[in-house]
Structure formats: structure tokens, C-alpha cells
Write a structure and sequence with these properties.
The protein has about 120 residues and is an all-alpha fold. It has seven helices and no strands. Helix 3 runs parallel beside helix 6, helix 4 crosses helix 7 and helix 5 runs antiparallel to helix 7. Belongs to the unc-93 family.
């Protein structure tokens, strides 16, 4: 198997597992934290952080760390998001969503992923 094909398959399978777990947890957010609207406000905090950080972070991180390490860092942020949902209190989801890097989780893995796929297709 070609090296570039193997890289594409590994990254794609990693993203499949990561986004399956994240999508399920995100869908359950308002049910898991139903007291006082905690789940809804936690998701609002999450998307507010995404909105602000997605505008500036991806180009800066790709220049500083490169595509591969930006993907690794952003995947670690998804794991931090999942771990922040184990203990249900008012502060845990509100602190874990922005602290685990909202923009890192959304826009940063997609940009280098697309760059990597385009480079693989060109070679």
C-alpha cells in the first residue's frame, strides 16, 4: 500500500472515531445536563468560543506547528471535551468547553486535514 494512501486511511479512520464520539456526546448535552438549562448554555458557550477562535487560530497554528501537529493537538482537545463531561456540575462543562479549545476542535483539524489530502492527491 502506498504511503500516502495509508496516511489518508489512518487520518480518516481517526476522524471517524473522534467525530462519532463527539457527535453523540454533543447530541446528549441538553439531556445530560437538564438542570437549570445547563446543557443548552454549555453548548452556547461552546459555539461562542468556536465563532471567535475559528477566525484566527487555524492559520497561526498551522504556521507554528505544521499540519500534522495541528491535527494531533486538535484531537487532544476533543478528548479534553469528552473528559469534561464526566462530572455534571454547573462549572465543569462551561470550563471544559472553552478550555479545551473550541476553535481548535472545529476549524483547526479541518484546515490541515484538507491541506494534507490535497498534498496526497497531488503526489
Amino acid at each position: 500500500m502506498e504511503r500516502s494512501l495509508k496516511n489518508v486511511l489512518v487520518v480518516s479512520f481517526g476522524f471517524l472515531l473522534l467525530f462519532t464520539a463527539y457527535g453523540g456526546l454533543q447530541s446528549l448535552q441538553s439531556s445530560l445536563y437538564s438542570e437549570e438549562g445547563l446543557g443548552v448554555t454549555a453548548l452556547s458557550t461552546l459555539y461562542g468560543g468556536v465563532l471567535l477562535s475559528s477566525m484566527f487560530l487555524p492559520p497561526l497554528l498551522i504556521k507554528k506547528f505544521g499540519c500534522k501537529w495541528t491535527i494531533v493537538i486538535s484531537m487532544c482537545c476533543y478528548v479534553a471535551f469528552s473528559l469534561g463531561n464526566f462530572y455534571a456540575s454547573w462549572y465543569s462543562p462551561h470550563s471544559s468547553h472553552p478550555a479545551s479549545g473550541s476553535g481548535l476542535r472545529f476549524s483547526c483539524p479541518m484546515t490541515p486535514h484538507c491541506i494534507h489530502f490535497n498534498m496526497s492527491a497531488a503526489s
